[in-house]
Amino acid sequence: MTLADSIRTIRWMIRDTLRQSLSTKLFWVTLTVTAVCTLFCASVRVHGDRPMVRTEYEVPAVLPKTEAERIGLEKAKNDGVQVISGEMTVGFGAVSVPVGHSREDSVKFLHVWLAGGLGDTLGVLLALLWTAGFLPTFLEPQSATVLLAKPASLWAILFGKYAGVVGFVGLNAILFVAATWTALGLATGVWTTAYWLAAPLLVVNFGIFYAVSTFLAVATRSTTSAAFGTLLFWMFCWAINYTHHRLVMNPVEGMTPIASYLLEVGYWTFPKPLDLSGIFFDAMKADGFGTKVGEFQALQAAGKFSPEGAVASSIGFGAVVLALAAYEFEMTDY
Amino acid sequence: MAADFVHVGKTYRNGLFARSGVTAVRDVTLTVPAGSVFGLLGPNRAGKTTLVKLLLSLSRPTAGSVARLGEPASTRRTLGRVGYMHENHAFPRYLSASEVLHFYGGLSGVSGEELPGRVDKLLERVGLADRSREPISRFSKGMVQRLGLAQALINEPDLLILDEPTEGLDLSGRQLLRDVVREWQAAKRTVLLVSHVLTEVEELCDELAVLVSGNVVYRGTVKELTRDSSGVRRPLESALRGLYANEVAA
Fold this sequence. Notes:
- The complex is a heterodimer.
- Chain A is 70% helix and 5% strand.
- By secondary structure, chain A is mostly helical.
- Chain A has one domain (3-45, 101-331).
- In chain A, α5 (103-119) runs parallel beside α10 (198-220), α10 (198-220) crosses α11 (223-249) and α11 crosses α14.
- Chain A is flat.
- Chain A starts with a helix and ends with a helix.
- By secondary structure, chain B is an alpha/beta fold.
- Chain B has a single domain (3-222), classed as 3-Layer(aba) Sandwich (Rossmann fold).
- Chain B contains eight helices and ten strands.
- Chain B has helices spanning 48-55, 97-107, 115-125, 141-153, 171-186, 198-204, 222-225, 236-249, and strands spanning 3-14, 20-32, 37-41, 63-68, 71-72, 82-86, 159-163, 190-194, 207-212, 215-220.
- In chain B, α3 (115-125) crosses α4 (141-153).
- The interface between A and B is medium-sized, with 25 and 32 residues.
């Protein structure tokens, strides 16, 4: 098979997988979630303060309106303290929340929560669960035999299917981000772009763990094994990631060099969901809107964390597992 | 030759650490000549479908070698000259008949320029032209079988493999299948027909092989098989029954 043949196969498989996903209930579920979140964003209003002018050397003195009233508005003004008097409402004015910072920060707070839900743990785990059935269904002997008897490389068929599912998740993520970002922007007049990082983060994070799901699907042809095996593996990776950071920052007395070495090997071998979350948190500049896991923060502060290494080794693991899945696919009898 | 099996054996491994196994094909040496309609007969679990899967590279032999259209079966390129139809097609239910043929045609290597013309022609041929845009989830089993036949013909194969093709087909569907086989025969292309329907085999096949318990117990023409030792013609069914009984007794 030439490279052109393989590319043609991948293209056909991606197209077929997208068709498959659009015809399932899953597409409508994700579309509904997007629609509900978009409606929520469209219902947000922020009244009051404009974004504050900040300079590098100035630490602005600000107080929320309630706090300033307690001290005395006049006194605060004379002391040069900026009083935040805004208000955010959601549900088209049904619920009112006092704005503790500028209007821009209020919108950013929503961005962080929406992006965290989408691109971080919840979004990845839900996407893994929802898409776990795609490959086992495709690999059922009755539907696979005719397809596998075509003159196409088996690795290209599998990779096309994998890319199709990742593409489907990516499309949904882009749709979600675009719709909610536009709705929030139109409703509040705030158009910060960091929110868009949620879509690529979800795709990378999902793509790494979907490679494991693909391997399990090829090896077992069972949706249950693919779904729950991948979730268990995600938890295992999170535990390795967390334990590594904890023991690096707070070494336990009596820990043998072999145990430390094995932990280090485990950390660098497996994907790092905790690190990916932390990197995303930093990219969103989400300080003040949530907290990172303490051990991660400590490692970062100590200068012992390599974001490039964490991302590259996680993607590398996904690529190796995908290659193993392709090998298993070639070796399996249908 | 269209297909060549040399001392082929196939054991499916199963159980924990693949410690146990089921032998589907024992030691088969068989050649399917190019340009013939070749029948493969045998009782259930004789190993017929396993031989077909080995020929299509859906499985690997545990012993011996398999060649397809003059090249080792591991060379997937020759699959572009093979059409395959089996009894229980499960096409993607979200596609229409036309989309199914475009999909499988595309994967078979049919060019984008040729594909739409071939799809229309084949849908017309199998009687699905007026239902071409409907999702196949609405199709009856017979209609899916017709679509399966069209799919097998989309690349105009040199070797057409039909595994129990008449399963679920009505009378006109069976006639359509016979016409296709005869057309392939006339064009000196090869058809490998795996079937339980003896009249079909008798009517269409130039040669046949009978498989019992993973071994070839007969290879020759239908005419030779249906003549007993005294030269009297007997029904194919009774000839086969004799072969099956001998093998089981052995």
